[in-house]
Amino acid sequence: MKTLGPADILRSLPMDKAVEAMRTAFASHAAGRIQSPPRSVLHTGGKRGATLVMPASLESGDPAVAVVKVVSVFPDNKPQGFRSIHGTLLAIDASTGVPLALLDGAALTAIRTAAACGLATDLLARRDSRVLAVFGSGVHARTQVRAMCAVRPIEDVRIFNPNLRSAQSMAAELSSDPILGGYRSVGSAHEALDGADIACAATTSPVPVFQDAEVPAGIHINAIGSFHAGDREVPGATVARARLVVDDIESALEEAGDVLMPMAEGLFGEDHIHCDLGSLVRGLASGRALDTELTFFKSVGIAAQDVVATQAVLREAARLGLGERIDW
């Protein structure tokens, strides 16, 4: 069996390839070709700490693989000097049950989560989108930037975090390894959104990170930070007037506070969900109708993403000779 660390995963699954892998993942999930039981969530370390156990299997493709990912999200870790997100993924040969590899689950999650938003953005955002607003400055905010740059000619990235030093650090880091455009930290949500074409919310905030009145016409919004029914990053009024697409309808109706909270407030019902991402990929639902329309993709993450991303990583890592072999 092999171990594949963050550098191995990043090399094996560059963002453009990850977006295409997510196109396969969501189409396969929507078509019922991926077996993915509901994930289990363990709440420990206080009410905001969560450990998620996510299994899935895909018997088509090479290699046929089953995965079990354990990922923990503990927003209060930072003052203690620990990362907020940790994860491990076990990949198993789906035809024999033989363990194939241990992967860094946090690195894989960051890439596949951003790639799903890249896919949604490719299908929903205006083709001429060039200005990106990013809320948050952690690992997921950084991968969101790379995903947006993979699908649109981004020229201007505005980063907002109430912790200005963290936002400045992210801008400096991205500027040292430029993708397409310029990067800068800004002092307010309004400054980030003013004239923006795309916005990505990747925070641990339990309350909206901007106001509905600040949202410009024609923007596409991705939100990935919250996966608790009682947390949301986007104002209910914004969700209510958007074309709403989710990664998975069942999961969204259980975990997506950005959807559940405005529903509880009476702003809309379940029928406001336009479709899931797989239906959009397969052409079973329409995307953006007008340049002035607001579109919104809400993701809580599904195991189908992990199994397809893992399959892609295992193939490329084998070709490149990456990973360390371990014997049990």
Describe the structure.
With 328 residues, this protein is α/β, with parallel strands linked by helices. It folds into two domains: 2-109 and 304-325, ornithine cyclodeaminase, domain 1, CATH 3.30.1780; 116-301, NAD(P)-binding Rossmann-like Domain (Rossmann fold). 35% of the residues lie in helices and 23% in strands. Strands 9-8-7-10-11-14-12-13 form an eight-stranded parallel beta sheet. It has a seven-stranded mixed beta sheet with strand order 2-3-4-5-6-1-15. Helix 4 (139-151) links the parallel strand 7 (131-135) and strand 8 (156-160). Helix 2 packs across helix 11 (303-320), helix 3 packs parallel to helix 4 and helix 3 (105-124) crosses helix 11. The protein is globular and about 55 Å long.
Corresponding CATH superfamily of the largest domain: NAD(P)-binding Rossmann-like Domain
Q: N-to-C terminal Cα separation, in Å?
A: 8 Å
CATH topology-level fold name of the largest domain: Rossmann fold
Oligomer: single chain
Q: Give the CA-based shape.
A: globular
Percentage of residues in helical conformation: 25-40%
Tell me the count of domains.
2
C-alpha Rg (nearest Å): 19 Å
**Sheet/helix structural class:** alpha/beta
CATH architecture of the largest domain: 3-Layer(aba) Sandwich
Could you describe the largest sheet, including whether it forms a barrel? 8 strands, parallel
Would you tell me the overall average pLDDT?
A: 94
The secondary-structure element order is: EHHEEEEEHEHEHEHEEHEHHEHEHE
Q: What's the number of extended β-strand segments?
A: 15
